[in-house]
Amino acid sequence: MTVLIFKNLIRTKETSILFVMACFMLILPIVNLFNSDFMRISGEPESVSFLDFLAGEFDVQNMLILPMVVMAYLVVTAIYTPVATGRMFLYKDLSRTTIINAKVLALLGIYTIYVALQVAVTFGLYYLYIVRFDYASGLFLPASDASAAADVISIAGVVFGELLTIMVAVALATRFSTGIIMFGSILWICLCATLPQLAGARYAVPGGYGTLLPSLGLPVTLLLMLALSTVYAAGLYAYARRRFSRLEY
């Protein structure tokens, strides 16, 4: 059933828009033609590795917010709309748990392709275009282990935050209408961007753990981010499954 739902989702306009957004950095060569400060990259000579560039790309996508707004709307399409329109009656003989699991896995599959496309586009852009500039080192990893660790934590913070955005939308979609689903998802995105700046609340979201990197090191910091994200995801999934099992259709 997961494959069937995945095939249906990947044909939607929302998925097409999401995949186009994954290629957002391809506008960089065009922007540079106009000598604009928008998306301008600079640095010391040979200081920007591919991993540095990739971490920057993930930050840009995260600040845009739009990809996750589209992803939240895809959750609406997958979970809320079939229930609201009565189409879930077609699955009345299937286990509710099987249905919600298939929908969540299909959504995560779409997100995985989105991330993979981001990485592939960024890799191609870096080695076909960025390496021409003097600030690019041409190396896959930064020369400094500390810089590499910071890049990994930065990327992980974005990915964990986005995965939780999907789960927040899934949980809301089992109870509320489209407006509340979108509002709740955007609110979570804003919290992920804001809380890391607040000393008393930064550890409430995965992106806030970067400050612990110098003292705890990469493995422990990454483990803490994973543990927090797992707790959140498990709670949201349990709520979504319980609510979905009670839906009338």
Automatic annotation (TrEMBL):
Keywords: Membrane, Sugar transport, Transmembrane, Transmembrane helix, Transport. The keyword Transmembrane helix applies. The chain crosses the membrane at residues 16-34, 64-83, 104-129, 149-173, 180-199, 219-240. This is Abc-type sugar transport system, permease component. The lineage of its organism: Bacteria, Bacillati, Actinomycetota, Actinomycetes, Bifidobacteriales.
